[in-house]
Write a structure and sequence with these properties.
about 350 residues; alpha+beta; Aminoglycoside 3'-phosphotransferase, Chain: A, domain 2; 2 domains; 10 helices; 9 strands; about 40% helix; globular
Length: about 350
């Protein structure tokens, strides 16, 4: 991780941030602020800010081109605030700023939770196969716990529109792709048409995370899940979209945003074992899983193309963006194959 910087960072101006945070949390800041960019993200920007005594995490949208409805800071803040006190571990939320004039974009401030966002097999291997299996199992169980939360019971009854969720997802990601095209992608049109024609009956609705994977979790002592992070795409809808996206991350042979090779660590279950554990613990029907996998491939392809667009425009911060565009066409092909295999 880079060292803390006494000055401003791209996307974060410390003086106006301090003024806002001191109004929102009087007495919280005790000294001069320093900040560092937290590496690893390919979408929203995440910073750690400290006064030398306390530390906080600040989240804001990426610089430059931002897709419509994406990178919603108020959405992330709302769902984490609502989930506090449930069985789903989330950081405490401290403040939300929806005024883009403060640091250049809306942002929110949350607790810094101690834990490791495991991404690579090399990071997991020293833990041993038994502990890796335990972590992976808890990853699945936490997803089941999330999908078992009653949205109305925690004030999220109006957080989304579950009816017609899958059809809207297909339309939404096509619109997002149309806004970020950098080249001809005929397989995108083919996959989109197949998804439109193959909509299944939806699974009973739940809170959907939208980007659930191991490195969006912080793993604490003893392999417990200390926090679930990155809620920017959370909504109410069909929870099997979360499971399918997790499975696509696990099965990938080519890079996708944020993906590592953690699933190759000894002890990590297969995608089939993960799906079976989810089905057993949730009681949900996975007979149409091929559609959900195809939709997840389409979604990741669109996200990758959006990141590739920002990279070409010089609007990304950090390293690792130059290879993201190479993931798009393999993802589209995998999505087509998932639907044809199910047919």
């Amino acid at each position: 991780m880079a060292a803390f910087d006494d000055g401003d960072l791209p996307g974060l101006r410390l003086a106006p941030f301090r003024a806002f945070f001191e109004r929102a949390r009087p007495g919280a800041v005790a000294g001069p602020l320093r900040a560092q960019l937290v590496p690893g993200g390919r979408s929203n920007l995440t910073y750690e800010v400290t006064d030398g005594r306390s530390s906080w995490i600040v989240r804001r949208p990426p610089l430059g081109h931002v897709l419509a409805t994406a990178h919603d800071m108020a959405r992330e803040h709302r769902v984490m605030t609502a989930l506090a006190g449930t069985g789903v571990p989330v950081p405490a939320t401290y403040a939300l700023c929806e005024d883009p004039d403060v640091i250049g974009a809306p942002f929110y401030v949350m607790e810094k939770v101690e834990g490791v966002p495991y991404r690579n097999a090399a990071e997991l291997r020293p833990l041993g196969a038994e502990q890796v299996a335990r972590i992976a199992g808890r990853m699945v169980d936490t997803l089941v716990d999330l999908h078992g939360v009653d949205p109305a019971g925690i004030g999220l009854a109006g957080f989304g529109r579950p009816e017609g969720f899958l059809a809207r997802q297909v339309r939404r990601w096509k619109r997002q792709l149309d806004a970020s095209y950098t080249r001809d992608l005929p397989e995108a049109d083919e996959l989109h048409a197949l998804l439109e024609a193959g909509l299944p009956a939806e699974s009973p609705p739940a809170i959907v995370h939208g980007d659930y994977r191991l490195d969006n979790l912080l793993v604490g002592d003893g392999g417990r899940i200390a926090a679930v992070l990155d809620w920017e795409m959370a909504t109410l809808g069909d929870p099997l979209t979360d499971l399918a996206l997790l499975l696509v991350y696990m099965r990938r042979r080519t890079p996708v945003p944020g993906e590592g090779d953690a699933m190759r660590a000894p002890g990590f279950p297969s995608a089939e074992e993960v799906a079976a554990r989810y089905a057993e613990r949730s009681g949900r029907d996975l007979s149409a899983l091929g559609f959900y996998v195809a939709l997840a491939c389409f979604k990741l392809a669109v996200i990758s193309e959006g990141i590739h667009y920002r990279f070409l425009q010089g609007q990304t911060v950090g390293k690792g963006f130059e290879s993201v565009g190479a993931a798009v066409e393999p993802l589209l092909r995998d999505g087509i194959a998932a639907l044809k295999d199910q047919a």
